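Example 9 (inverse folding). The structure is encoded as follows.
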C-alpha cells in the first residue's frame, strides 16, 4: 500500500493491514487523492469508513446504514453525510481514495458468489482492540443492504465469528418477543479466515424517543436474560462460580490473577444467592436500536453466554456508557457502578441485598475477558484493569459489612 498518510490515530495505522486482508495480492490496494475506488471517510488520516465512491446511492446507503453512530446528534451527522454522498457533494468533499487494482480472488468476489449476486462493499474501520476485525456492509448497486459480513483473522476473532454464527442459529429457535435478531446467510471459511454473513437489520427505520427507547432497551435486556430460563441458587458451588474461577486461573502467573482470586474468595465467603440466566455479552449502546414501531434491534452476539447472573447486560451498558460516552474516569465509573447496582438491577428483581455482589462478579468477568484477550497489549485503554477496575472492586469489598476486605 503506497502513499501512506500521516498517522493521526490508531485507525490510520490499521488501514493498510485491513486493506491487505480484504483485497489481498494481486489487488494492490493503494491510497491516492481523487478518482474511483473507495472513499475514505472522513480522511485517510482519520479513517472510520470505506464507501464505494463510484456509486452515489451505494455510498449514501453505506453511511446511512452505518451502525457506529450513537445518539441523536451522531445520527443527524450521519444523515447529513449520507445526503452529501447521495447528491455528489461527498465525493468532492472526501477526496482520499483506496484504489483496488483487481477484484479476482478478493473477499468482494467471494461474497458476491456466496450471495449469488454482485455486492458492493463498505468497510467499517474500528478502534484499536484485541478483537478488532473486518466488518463489512454488503450493498447492491442501488444501495439496498444485502447483509453484513464479519471476518475472523486470528485465533481470537475466528473464535468470536464462529461463536456468533452458533448463537444466531440458537436464538432463531428462542422466543424473544419484540426483539429482532439477524439471520445467518452464510458461515464458513475464506482462506485461513472465518467468515460469517448475516442479514441486515433495518437500522435506518425511525427510532423511538429517548425516554421510550431506554425503557424498551431495559425490557429487552430482561427478556434476553430470561430467554433460556433462570436458575436461582447459592453462588458457592454453582457452575458459574466454578467457570469464573477457572477463567481467572487460566490467566496464569500475572499480578492481576491473585487479586481476582482474592475477590472471588471474598464473594464465596459471603455466598450470595444469585439468579443465573443469559446475557448478550457486550451491550454497549452501539449494537442495539429501539424503533418507533416498538421493536428492538440487537446485533453483535459474539459474546453471548448462558449461566451468568442476570443483569450483566445492564451493568455493562451503564459502565460503557459512562466511560466512552459521558467521559467519566474509569475508576470513578466502576465505583459508581458498584454504588448504584441496586437501581441498575431493579428491573431484573435479583435477591435483595445481593446487587452489589452481582456487580462485583460482573467486573471480575470483564477483567478476566480483557486480560485473556490481551486488550492492553492491543492498545485498548480499559485493558489495564489493575489501574482502574481492581482498585474499585477491592475498596468496595473492604468497606462492605461482613466482607472482611480483600487480601491484596
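The amino acid assigned to each position is listed next.
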Amino acid at each position: 500500500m503506497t502513499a501512506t498518510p500521516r498517522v493521526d490515530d490508531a485507525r490510520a495505522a490499521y488501514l493498510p493491514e485491513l486493506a491487505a486482508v480484504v483485497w489481498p495480492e494481486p489487488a494492490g490496494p493503494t491510497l491516492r487523492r481523487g478518482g474511483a475506488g473507495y472513499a475514505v471517510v472522513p480522511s485517510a488520516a482519520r479513517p472510520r469508513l470505506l464507501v464505494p465512491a463510484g456509486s452515489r446511492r451505494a455510498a449514501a446507503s453505506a453511511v446511512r446504514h452505518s451502525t457506529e453512530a450513537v445518539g441523536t446528534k451522531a445520527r443527524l451527522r450521519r444523515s447529513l453525510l449520507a445526503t452529501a454522498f447521495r447528491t455528489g457533494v461527498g465525493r468532492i468533499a472526501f477526496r482520499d481514495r483506496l484504489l483496488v487494482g483487481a477484484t479476482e480472488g478478493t473477499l468482494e468476489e467471494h461474497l458476491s458468489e456466496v450471495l449469488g449476486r454482485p455486492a458492493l462493499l463498505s468497510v467499517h474501520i474500528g478502534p484499536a482492540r484485541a478483537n478488532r476485525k473486518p466488518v463489512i456492509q454488503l450493498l447492491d448497486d442501488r444501495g439496498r443492504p444485502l447483509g453484513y459480513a464479519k471476518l475472523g483473522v486470528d485465533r481470537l476473532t475466528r473464535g468470536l465469528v464462529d461463536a456468533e454464527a452458533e448463537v444466531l442459529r440458537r436464538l432463531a429457535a428462542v422466543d424473544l418477543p419484540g426483539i429482532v435478531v439477524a439471520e445467518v446467510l452464510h458461515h464458513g471459511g475464506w482462506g485461513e479466515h472465518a467468515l460469517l454473513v448475516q442479514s441486515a437489520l433495518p437500522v435506518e427505520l425511525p427510532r423511538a424517543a429517548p425516554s421510550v427507547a431506554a425503557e424498551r432497551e431495559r425490557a429487552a435486556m430482561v427478556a434476553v436474560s430470561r430467554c433460556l430460563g433462570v436458575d436461582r441458587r447459592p453462588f458457592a458451588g454453582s457452575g458459574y462460580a466454578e467457570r469464573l474461577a477457572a477463567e481467572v486461573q487460566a490467566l496464569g502467573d500475572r499480578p492481576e490473577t491473585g487479586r481476582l482470586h482474592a475477590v472471588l474468595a471474598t464473594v464465596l465467603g459471603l455466598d450470595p444467592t444469585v439468579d443465573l440466566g443469559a446475557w448478550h455479552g457486550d451491550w454497549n449502546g452501539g449494537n442495539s436500536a429501539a424503533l418507533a414501531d416498538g421493536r428492538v434491534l440487537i446485533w453483535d452476539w459474539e459474546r453471548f453466554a448462558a449461566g451468568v447472573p442476570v443483569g450483566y447486560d445492564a451493568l455493562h451498558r451503564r459502565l460503557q456508557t459512562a466511560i466512552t460516552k459521558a467521559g467519566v474516569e474509569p475508576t470513578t465509573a466502576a465505583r459508581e457502578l458498584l454504588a448504584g447496582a441496586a437501581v441498575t438491577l431493579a428491573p431484573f428483581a435479583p435477591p435483595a441485598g445481593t446487587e452489589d455482589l452481582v456487580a462485583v462478579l460482573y467486573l471480575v468477568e470483564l477483567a478476566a475477558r480483557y486480560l485473556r484477550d490481551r486488550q492492553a497489549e492491543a492498545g485498548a485503554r480499559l485493558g489495564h484493569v489493575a489501574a482502574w477496575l481492581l482498585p474499585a472492586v477491592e475498596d468496595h469489598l473492604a468497606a462492605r459489612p461482613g466482607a472482611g476486605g480483600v487480601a491484596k
